[in-house]
## 1
Amino acid sequence: MIVTVASGKGGTGKTTVAVSLALSIAADRRNLAGNESGQPVRPLFLDCDVEEPNAALFLKPTIEERKEVGQLIPEVDPEKCIYCGRCAEVCQYHAIAVVGKKVLVFPELCHGCGSCTLNCPTGAITEVLDVMGTIERGWAGPVEFAQGTMNVGEPMAVPIIRQLKRWAIPPEPGDRPIVLDAPPGTACPVVETMRGADFVLLVTEPTPFGLHDLRLAVEVARNELGLPVGVVINRDGVGDRGVEAYCAEEGIPILMRIPLDRRIAEAYSEGIPLVEALPEYRQRFAALWEEIAARVRQAREDADA
């Protein structure tokens, strides 16, 4: 089961919740994923915030494998090119242009769709890998860990996130707990992280800014992608009741509340996960996962009915 932890607004505690969820699942010996041996399950954690990944600061994984990733961009052979302009005509992203007897390629605009290569009448275009970043994986105790890191100056995070998911998530994950830590916001990287998930857990704060961006995140997850959503209110009690009123109006369950607690902030500043600094939260996060799993099962049953 794949759960994406997201937040329209940055700085709401998304990574704190995602890391705590994975660690609590790993420590819970109950049968959360069909594990009949009674041993702790081994969740998979993906840090999909490839522009500034930070979950490793808390999980402290041992990286065992790393590779460069990117996307294929066109390379033109001037000996074969007849400068007909067909490649530029079919490129909907304007990533290639023909000016006189010269072909210009703009890697920053290219989406690697391959249309120029397929439509070149003389076979003058081949595709070469444009390295955009790295993906790596390993283990953080009982938690399998993977993350992507985008190279400085690269404009697009989506290709790295897409390849990270393909590389780390098994083709048939079944009921294995998989937690995806999404980037902040509601742009394309967030959409790519949510895509294919069974549930989206939205972390927000009870402030006007938190409510504004929560609305946007719900629009993307539920209305555009058709995914079930639930909310965690972090720093509960510091603002107003606008988030609660909105969730009640939209029928969105509030699955957990985390109060404003200086101890949590101090642990965060030292790179200590919430559930290690305050062990009493382990049971709460394990129960949160069970609640999400129950809602996913019910959604699947309703879809099959």
Note: Residues 203 and 232 are 5 Å apart (CA to CA).
## 2
Amino acid sequence: MNSNGRRKFSVRSTAILLGAVLAAGFSATSVAQTTTIRWGESLAANHPQVMMAERVAKEVKEKTGGRIDIQVFPNSQLGSGKEMVEMVSSGAIQMVTEGAGAVAAFLPPLSVIEAPYLWRDPAHMSKLATTPFFAKLNDDLVSKRGMRMLNVTYYGKRHLTTGNKAVKTPADMVGFKIRVPPVDVFRAMAEAWGARATPIAFGELYLALSQGVVDGEENPLPTIQSAKLYEVQKYLVLTGHILTPRIVIANEAFLKAMTPADRAIFHAALANGEAWQNKELLAQEASAVSALKAQGMTVIEPDVALWRKPVLDTVPKKFEDKWGKGTFEALLAL
């Protein structure tokens, strides 16, 4: 081969090699610059909790120039609450919003924050995140399960609904089959009323009610609305038995992998989302009773003291070993 041929070969080879290097560099840069986060939810897409996640995703994407893409999966698409918490722990997904009950399967003392008749109002509940008790539980969750609780959001005041029976006092609950989340504290509460507690995952609740597997259920008003439970329940009984927190949880390794700047953007977006969600949910609660009446539900306003007494007489004592002696009383006094 003459020198001219060698020169042509060299130029061609160099061009191919340079193209490959550039392509590889571009691909690596693209991968490095795009982080996909999967956020699981069991609630319907129109619930304020899911809308909060979507707002956080939008803000984070905008402020990172698209480098962080949060994908939200509502309606239990990724599994039950407990399954999604397990997935966050393993790193299969990065985030989930769930009730304390599902997380308490990994950290039993946490179930106290979902105890009946504990929180007076949302402002009282919001003090939880600033307590040494919560900080200690979070440290334990990180060290033992590799995930961290980020935000404690307001999920609403829970009330009872029934299909065909007008329930006014706990005496009316004897033998009543009530769906509760798969959480021992909820079961104990239902049993204190004399009811037959039936744990069912939220994603299966509508069907269970429509088929008469259970006689009723209990949930916050916006959840009853968004899940259209008024279609399969006739009575709304305003027991107000639990002010429920829901917790945003993230995989700790994922959090540590973020740059400090991106982590700041992420946490700021979560704070903004939480503030919006809490305000929106309270607004929905304020108009929910009228809306559910308009959907055909009959509203019963019982003597709440009759519902509170059997629960407080039994449940805190039953869980004292799990929660820690005096924990319920300390949180009640915040």
Note: Confidence is low (pLDDT under 50) at residues 1-31.
